[in-house]
Design goal:
By secondary structure, this protein is mainly alpha-helical. About 65% of the residues lie in helices and about 0% in strands. It contains two helices and no strands. The longest helix has 20 residues. It is elongated, with a radius of gyration of 14 Å. The two termini are about 25 Å apart.
């Protein structure tokens, strides 16, 4: 946990962006469970 805290202090914007992107990806997967092939691999 302390590693994440240090990273958050050093790069809060980057960490928030990564977490936000992960949240979006999870939401897309939950919204399109029957169409997994429509999700680009780059995301």
């Amino acid at each position: 946990m302390f590693i994440h805290s240090v990273t958050f202090r050093q790069k809060p914007t980057n960490v928030l962006t990564i977490l936000f992107n992960k949240f979006i990806m999870i939401m897309k997967k939950s919204q399109l469970p029957h169409q997994p092939r429509y999700l680009p691999r780059r995301f």
